[in-house]
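Table 4 source record.
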Amino acid sequence: MPKTSSSRRLALDDSLNDNNFNRRHIAFVREYFKDRNATQAALRAGYSPATAPVIGHNLLRKGNVARHIRDIERQLMIDAVVDEVWVIQQLKENAARAIDKEDYGVVTRCLELIGKHIGMFVERSSLNVNYDNIERIERRIVDPEIIDVDYSVDDKKRED
């Protein structure tokens, strides 16, 4: 089962108990992961509105706070991979249960999602252009005398 946000929060809190972080740095890191907005995180961490944009930017770029945020982001990516594996496992289990119940619509959908995930179904499109036909069409549009259609019958009907 995927990790919960509370287990991530505990890991975040444990990793911030380092002496290299002051109270605001710790608050900034916690707040940053709520919406990934450095300015808003700095404001919520207690920095003044006048300095929050610059401080938020600097905290993301330099020092221990930036390094710590990158480490947490790496860990979140690892957790996302675990979540991805879990979802695929659930799809496989759903497909197996649906086969037992002979619910082939669910089976097909599960297999489709798994196939899309592993790249089995690549949408392909091709466009074959015959340039000779394009030139002939362009000439007909530019010079109506080239058109083989006889419009004289239509003109006589309109006159009557």
